[in-house]
Amino acid sequence: MPFEPKRVMFEQDALSYPLGRKLFDEFKDRDVEIAMLKSHNKVSGIPGKTPAQAFGEGKNTLVVGIRRTLKFESCKPSAHYQLPLVTGCSGMCTYCYLNTQLGKKPYIRVYVNVDEILEQCSKYIQEREPDITFFEGAATSDPIPVEPYTGSLRRTIEFFGQQPLGRFRFVTKFTDVDGLLGAEHNGHTTIRFSINADSVIQKYEHRTARLAERVAAAKKVMDSGYPIGFIIAPVMLFDNWKAEYEEALQELQRQLASHSSKEIHFEVISHRFTARAKQNINEVFPENDLPMNEEERKYKYGQFGYGKYVYHKEQLADMEEFFRKRLTEIFPNAVIDYVI
Ligand code: SF4
Predict the structure, then answer these.
(1) Which residue, among 172, 315, 301, has the nearest Cα to 235 in the 3D structure?
(2) Which of 113, 183, 222, 243 reaches 20 to 30 Å from 330, CA-CA?
(3) 327: enclosing H helix or E strand
(4) Ligand 1 pocket test: which of 142, 192, 202 has the largest number of ligand atoms within 8 Å of its C-beta?
(5) Does the C-beta of 91 come closer than 6 Å to ligand 1?
């Protein structure tokens, strides 16, 4: 399900790049609003009066621009640098980690100066020689829904395929991976799928793919030789959670049977929230029933003054035992990076 934007906004200069031109040609004859932006810094003209409308209209907007700053942000602990190809995401997950970062109208922006971005990667790789440098492609986005339009991930994957000392990784809740199959990745790109119990997906991960579809996409990229991993998150410890997560693990077992002896990485993350995220979620999704009752959680002081509400120690121990046991039973060579 590639992203179908309602409006596409172009920075004028983006049209002087082949990808900017291609995107313009692609969208100009479609039934979408096209607008030219006067200034790079100001994306104006997205409607929306209430927080929920503003949010929804932002999510339906694609901005085609140029990445001006080529100083990449660091991305500890999972990688050395964020690799900016896309910011934002067309999904509307209630608990999205981007909801507090992208402003009131969280549009999706793609960058057309991919050559310059990749050149910058080469420089960072050289600086760290002879060590390997890792780049994360999903630090501020889910890059998959726009991939059918841009092809930028495939180019990046093939670029890293040629880099003895560069590695690329990204994570997705989407399935538009066909354009990545057959790319010369040389095992240098790891694709991770973020998954959850299907009931949680249906309830909270609006406009993303269902569990079985994500696992089918994971199988395709495994068939194409990519190293892969799964992030099981956020794990919700509701009544009957074990049965529903067991069901999800069995979906993996069913579809990935032919790959069960491969090394697959797993990261398992329990649900947590901050006071700020809760406030934001309640503004944008006033009807949500996400379990965010502070009294049922333990307050954990955070590094930067932002404390989090997490599950209690005994609940987390139970969760950890369940996932470690079942994952290693199903995938004998599973590597469980962490359960938190
Ligand atoms: S798919 Fe990921 S990035 Fe997109 S809305 Fe959901 S949590 Fe956010």
Answers:
(1) 315
(2) 183
(3) helix 313-330
(4) 142
(5) yes
C-alpha 93 – ligand 1 centre gap (Å)? 6
The predicted pLDDT at position 161 comes to 98
What pLDDT score does 110 carry?
Answer: 97
Q: Is residue 84 part of a domain?
A: yes
Query: How far is 275 from 280, CA to CA, in rounded Å?
Result: 9
| Distance (Å) from CA 131 to ligand 1 centroid | 32
Domain harbouring 22, CATH code: 3.40.50.12110
Number of domains making up the chain:
1
User: Residues near 97 by Cβ (< 8 Å), separated by ≥ 6?
Assistant: none
Q: Is residue 97, in this structure, part of any structural domain at all?
A: yes
Residue 30 placed within a domain: yes
Res 52 pLDDT > 90: no
Domain extent for 76: 1-169
Q: Tens of pLDDT along 262-279?
A: 999 999 999 999 998 899
Q: Which residue, 48, 39, 40, is CA-closest to 7?
A: 48
In a domain, 148, yes or no: yes
What is the pLDDT, as a whole number, of residue 137? Answer: 97
Residue nearest to atom 8 of ligand 1 (CA): 96
Question: Would the CB of 89 count as within 6 Å of ligand 1?
Answer: yes
H helices of 166-312, in order, are 198-204, 211-223, 241-255, 275-284
Query: Are the beta carbons of 78 and 21 closer than 8 angstroms?
Result: no
Q: Is a pLDDT exceeding 80 seen at residue 40? A: no
